[in-house]
Design goal:
globular, 3 helices, about 120 residues, Nucleotidyltransferase, domain 5, five-stranded mixed sheet
């Protein structure tokens, strides 16, 4: 099964990026084989609509779930519309998160974890 994890780097030893829409990379990984693709986020410096744009990008990658530190309301709605599980509150390395996911320790969230301005430089 393929999932997406937001990442601060482009390999499995990288730390999870706490932001969804403005993360550094999206790691799309097969949880069984650990084969992965690192996608540099093209939306990181966009002015607006980042959550929706990032959500659409990942929805087109045929993943079942998105794992991240936080997700805002627009991204959450986009991912939910695409019928993807959204799991927030994850941290550690990408490898650690995959192991927790495979053990069933991470459960989907039912709502956004931050407001729509989270992750924009200069805002809280």
């Amino acid at each position: 099964m393929k999932i997406c994890i937001t990442s601060q780097g482009e390999n499995l030893d990288s730390q999870v990026d706490p932001r969804f829409g403005r993360c550094q990379y999206f790691i799309v990984i097969d949880t069984e084989t650990l084969g992965f693709e690192a996608i540099q986020n093209p939306n990181i410096d966009s002015m607006g609509g980042v959550g929706v744009q990032s959500g659409q990008l990942i929805a087109n990658k045929s993943v079942k779930a998105v794992l991240t530190g936080n997700v805002g309301p627009n991204a959450f709605q986009t991912l939910q519309t695409a019928r993807l599980d959204v799991i927030t509150g994850v941290s550690g390395t990408i490898k650690e998160v995959i192991e927790k996911y495979n053990r069933g320790e991470l459960k989907p969230t039912q709502c956004p974890s931050v407001n729509s301005k989270f992750g924009i430089p200069g805002t809280k």
